[in-house]
Amino acid sequence: MTSVEPEARPPEQRQIRVEPVRTSEELELVYAIRSEVFDREQHLTTWVRDYPEDTPSLNVLAWIDGEAVGTGRVSLWGDEAQIAWVAVRKPYRGQGVGRAIMEHLIRWAQEHGARVVTLNAQTHALEFYRKLGFRPVGRPFSMAHIEHQLMERNLRSPVEGGAA
Ligand code: COA
After folding, report:
1. Cα separation of 41 and 128, whole Å?
2. Around Cβ 145, how many Cβ atoms within 10 Å?
3. How close is the Cα of 121 to the center of ligand 1, in Å?
4. From CA 22, how far away is CA 38, in angstroms rounded?
5. Residue 153 C-alpha to ligand 1 middle, in angstroms?
6. Whose CA is nearest to atom 15 of ligand 1?
């Protein structure tokens, strides 16, 4: 579990907890958040469930006051990890939830021996990922009418600016 201590944040903010998904009910919450953000909000895709070949993967949920407010997934192939499906429900953005999710996923990748983590960032979120130590690779491309950028973070070298 990753916990962001409330003392480090403005007093009006509540504690954010990030936990691995352990039950089928929690996995349904993951799919519900993916649907809310990637289907109904962004019209990116209507298919938000994992394919069987997506394992080994870790899905996480971020919680505030008992409510599931965000999610993300990391998958591992050998020493390469890929992060996907990072989403925070709209009312909870800008409070550090996305960062807490990413830090948990990156830590899991590190602990499982990953050398590098990649992701396909929507270009509006480039700065979010830059702040977490990711760098663009190659050119932006269009996927489902949304511009994306492949990004990667090398886990075996220190990150400029001291990102997690
Ligand atoms: N543009 C620039 N900076 C951004 C940003 C954006 N769109 N989103 C977050 N940041 C910055 C924050 O200002 C913050 O900076 P700080 O550490 O200097 O204060 C840092 O990134 C962490 O932000 P945080 O509050 O943890 O992000 P969030 O909880 O709002 O989550 C997303 C960010 C992108 C996950 C969220 O906006 C989201 O779910 N968007 C819709 C789905 C999506 O696009 N997912 C990404 C798919 S690639």
Report:
1. 19
2. 8
3. 11
4. 23
5. 17
6. 128
CA-based torsion, 104, 89, 120, 40: positive or negative: positive
Written in H, E and C, the secondary structure of 89-120 is CHHHCCCCHHHHHHHHHHHHHHHCCCCEEEEE
Instruction: State in Å: Cα 71 to ligand 1 middle.
Output: 13
Task: Output the six-digit token pair for 38.
Answer: 């990637």
Task: Decide if pLDDT at 140 tops 60.
Answer: yes
Nearest ligand 1 atom to the CA of 93 is 30
Please state whether the predicted TM-score (pTM) of the whole model is above 0.85.
Answer: yes
pLDDT at 3 exceeding the cut of 60: no
pLDDT tens across 97-120, in order? 999 999 999 999 999 999 999 999
